[in-house]
Design brief:
The protein is of the alpha+beta class. Among the domains are: 330-404, no CATH class; 432-519, no CATH class. Helix content is 37%, strand content 10%.
Length: 521
């Protein structure tokens, strides 16, 4: 969405707004739903789901004491998450959940697959032959069994597009199912915390049952060993046993694209070494359990046992980049979609404690865009009132300087670089500091680095400068520069040294004039 009101009133800035106006890009939203199962209630399954009940909320959950205890636990979680400094959580109010007369809420958006700013509209929902919401044809792919899961999970994987032979670009383990899956989709991640002791007790009974049947089937023996390894790790490492389920709900308004959607989701899961399952029989129950706040009624026969650490590796840990709230910054493009973002790489990192200074170092091979980036960076800073000074080697920034109406000083063999320390702008005064800097410059041009100067030479230089500036006051027609100072040394100052009876051993003016001759004219 273009913003012509706040963008700088320059040709490049407004052209950038027009270029990106109304372009499609991937949007991402993340919601965490914490649900409490009714105490003592029967676990749901594909055959027993509240999709067939009159009321979604069990009667037991109307107990205020139970609700207050649940809210206290949620408050502790929110505090821990926000104290990390990486997450900001906001509780959804009634309007955000149920919606208003003109704006759909979370319930309506999930049921009818509406976008964030899309107007409210009612659609028919068909569950007989696949899930269809109005004209949107949906497919549901799940990871509901341990056999479908990868053999190894972790917090990260390599993103091959930006990785090289010696370098690796890390993204979250489940990123192929999140931002990297370029279709309209919802990635649901379910983790169910239960009674750990009761869970381990059931698994112990299952292990004994498999052990008694192991003589009849080798598969039973393998399953017995797997359950035994799970129990050993739970006890030895203090792991928390949980049940988990993950699914991807994708959709398209073109029914012919359903096969392509399936290929994309299956390929994304294959990048994790996971096997996608297209839900057909239990899709209605799984879809309805994804209704915001209804996660506690998820069919538990579509979950698998794992540990909390392994389940958390399947969480989507990344989101779309957001523009900085800082008023100062530069416009950059999102890595995945190219969407323009306002980024502060100077002040904000310092204020957040990420960096302690504002130095920047741009490294890249020839043709990688170093000068292009620097041109863009300097233009953005100049438009925001920064004072920019560039030492340009190769005239890469001459066009930018002309565009911004700046001063560009260049040199060649015929016109070498030069500066005039003798010139004073209107209103300036030749104070002691400026005189000392000129004397230091003249001594550096006259003497070598390892060659010392005598006190008499320093005094003679001071006198020459004082007399020269007195001459400039008496003769306004003389332009203050090195050439006029050099001519004064040749003509007037030699006679002054003779009147003061300064010997050549104290100050050799002929040697001084000869050494400075290459800088004359």
């Amino acid at each position: 969405r273009a913003d012509f009101e706040s963008c700088p009133d320059s040709f490049l800035s407004r052209s950038s707004e027009r270029f990106f106006a109304q372009r499609e890009c991937m949007e991402h939203e993340c919601y965490i739903f914490l649900s409490k199962r009714a105490p003592g209630g029967r676990l749901s399954s594909s055959a027993l789901s509240n999709v067939l009940r009159k009321s979604l909320s069990p009667v037991e959950l109307s107990d205020q004491v139970l609700v207050d205890g649940f809210l206290d636990s949620v408050g502790q979680l929110v505090r821990v998450m926000e104290d990390s400094g990486f997450v900001k959580m906001q509780r959804l109010d009634d309007d955000a959940l149920a919606g208003t007369a003109n704006r759909p809420g979370m319930l309506e958006r999930y049921c009818f697959l509406l976008q964030k700013d899309e107007a409210s509209v009612l659609n028919d929902i068909h569950l007989a032959e696949g899930i269809r919401v109005g004209e949107k044809h949906c497919q549901l792919f799940s990871l509901a069994d341990a056999q479908q899961m990868p053999w190894v999970v972790g917090p990260r994987i390599n993103y091959e597009r930006y990785s090289g032979e010696r370098t690796r670009f890390s993204v979250g383990f489940a990123s192929p199912l999140g931002q990297l899956l370029a279709v309209n989709h919802i990635y649901n991640q379910y983790v169910f915390l239960g009674d750990a002791g009761a869970t381990l007790k059931k698994l112990e009974a299952k292990k004994l049952r498999l052990h008694s049947l192991s003589s009849y089937s080798r598969e039973n023996a393998v399953s017995r060993d797997a359950v035994n390894d799970y129990l050993n790790e739970a006890v030895a490492a203090g792991r928390l046993p949980v049940k988990a389920h993950f699914n991807v709900l994708c959709w398209s308004e073109d029914a012919a694209e359903r096969k392509e959607l399936g290929n994309l989701v299956s390929s994304a899961m294959a990048q994790l070494d996971a096997v996608a399952k297209l839900e057909t029989d239990g899709r209605a129950q799984i879809w309805f359990a994804g209704l915001p706040g209804n996660q506690a009624d998820f069919p538990m026969n579509d979950t698998f046992d794992t540990f909390l650490e392994q389940a958390s590796c399947m969480f989507n840990l990344e989101s779309s980049d957001r523009s900085s709230v800082s008023p100062f910054g530069v416009r950059l493009g999102d890595r995945l979609s190219g969407r323009p973002l306002h980024v502060d790489i100077s002040d904000e990192p310092v204020s957040l404690g990420i960096a302690t200074n504002r130095n920047k170092f741009i490294l890249g091979p020839s043709g990688s865009g170093k000068s292009f980036l620097t041109n863009h960076l300097m233009r953005s800073y100049a438009e925001q009132g920064a004072h920019v000074v560039i030492v340009d080697v190769g005239h890469s920034y001459q066009g930018l300087c002309e565009l911004m109406g700046g001063y560009y000083f260049t040199y060649s063999e015929q016109r070498p670089i030069a500066f005039n320390p003798f010139f004073l702008a209107e209103g300036d005064v030749m104070d002691t500091e400026k005189k000392e800097s000129i004397k230091t410059l003249l001594l550096a041009l006259w003497k070598k680095d390892d060659e010392d100067f005598r006190r008499s030479e320093y005094v003679a230089l001071s006198n020459s400068l004082s007399l020269y500036f007195e001459l400039l006051e008496a003769r306004p027609d003389i332009f203050p520069c090195f050439n006029s100072f050099y001519e004064y040394l040749q003509s007037g100052y030699g006679a002054e040294l003779e009147r003061s009876k300064v010997k050549a051993a104290d100050f050799d003016i002929q040697n001084f004039i000869y050494v400075l001759s290459p800088f004359y004219r």
